[in-house]
Amino acid sequence: MEQLTELEIAVFQLRMGFGHADRCVDWAVERLRLDQEGDDLEIVLLASARGRDEALPLAEVIIERHRGVERPADQFLAGKCIVELRAAYLAGRESVSSLDAIFTRLYPALGYPDWLVMLSRNCEYAMDVADFELPFEDEFRYIATLWAQAESLAAFEREYGRETSNRHDVMRG
Hints:
- Helices cover 69% and strands 0% of the residues.
- It is an all-alpha fold.
- The longest helix is centred in the middle third of the chain and has 17 residues.
């Protein structure tokens, strides 16, 4: 199954409340356009789904069938989302405020992972304190760069250094 990770990220975003069903539908339409998995009824149905309530269960069935117990961890999918979110932020499609709403959902949903502490905190603070903009952007770049290169949660964790994250703070004089 080609591009399954792309569908998994879209489903993760839907489950977390900040994704769009159209992304799942577009994924299915593209599979059909390329004549990939054209005999898969769920992909055909997903291509014509309307809204979250139709798209999410179909996409979950497709992922379960092709991944089974090999599904990526939610933290891995969140990391890949962060790569996308940073690109959207740099392009002006996301703001500190919109990112704060996303990180506020992700952080507890993922069980408060250590790697998300400073990013979430700095984003929240940057909404009200201009001095936190640069530390937020530094941490966002650091985390997104690591996730862009990581092929798994374990690979990310091998590279991540909390000490580096801790340096992305407002310097005290």
